[in-house]
Design a protein that fits this description.
single chain; alpha/beta; TIM Barrel; 2 domains; two-stranded antiparallel ribbon; 38% helix; 15% strand
Length: 250
């Protein structure tokens, strides 16, 4: 096991690489280009900038979280092939800089979801929190809660970018006919398309469990239990089709 630490990049993270360097045993940084929209190609010069920053402190950049999957791929629109080609180009570009693992998810519209951003725990500190019974029925109200917080503290949460949240109603209409089986089929299509590139570049795709692991707002979630994990791994039986073992959502 190699110890790594998540870093959101300059301007996005109050923790500096020099701070992380003080943690014993940390060998690498888990990173992403957080200003890139889903479907955009990650350019070599952008990747090189992050690598140079991490090299300065002796960190590897073996793991990326996340290269987000465009909604057209998840929905199964005719335009998905264009975005899949962009994804494959990003994989190739990342491989040139030593990346070995891409953590990603296939959750419709929302990335991770929380009902409370300031849940107080026993020692008085706060943590992100999700309680199924507390989730609001109005997805726009939940999005506003998160966006108001990010605006107040001048920050952005991955998966909750204002550009995406501004199109919620449009996105929900686009997903109206996407049920569990259709989403499974679209995931399989995506993986079968990129696996040859992953083998060529020696980069493993590690899907993140759905967080939380059940349907929300009528949107299907796939990676929710042991049976669905078995289905996922057998659906595309390839050593480069892997899992992200997130203890928070397993």
């Amino acid at each position: 096991m190699k110890m790594t630490f998540r870093w959101y990049g300059e301007g996005n993270d109050r923790i500096k690489l020099s701070d992380i360097k003080q943690i014993p045993g940390v060998e690498g940084i888990v990173w992403a280009l957080h200003d890139k929209m889903p479907g955009e190609v990650w350019q070599p010069e952008e990747i090189a900038k992050v690598k140079a920053q991490c090299d300065e402190y002796g960190f590897n950049i073996d793991v990326v979280e996340s290269v987000n999957v465009h909604d057209d791929i998840k929905i199964g629109l005719p335009t998905r092939d264009k975005y899949i080609e962009n994804y494959k180009e990003t994989i190739r570009n990342l491989s040139k800089f030593g990346v070995k693992v891409i953590c990603y998810n296939f959750m419709p519209i929302f990335d991770w979801t929380r009902s409370n951003l300031f849940h107080e725990v026993g020692d008085g500190s706060t943590a992100l929190f999700y309680e199924k019974g507390m989730i609001q029925d109005d997805y726009n109200a939940m999005a506003k809660y998160i966006l108001d917080f990010t605006e107040k503290y001048n920050m952005s949460f991955p998966g909750w970018e204002p550009e995406r949240m501004a199109k919620l109603d449009e996105l929900f209409k686009a997903y109206a006919d996407v049920d569990h089986e259709k989403l499974w089929a679209n995931l399989k299509y995506f993986l079968e398309a990129i696996m040859p590139t992953c083998r060529e570049c020696d980069i493993k795709m590690a899907i993140h469990m759905d967080d939380p692991p059940w349907d929300i707002f009528g949107l299907p979630r796939l990676l929710v239990d042991e049976a669905s994990i078995d289905r996922f791994l057998s659906m595309v039986d390839d050593e480069y089709n892997c899992l992200t073992l997130c203890s928070g959502s397993l």
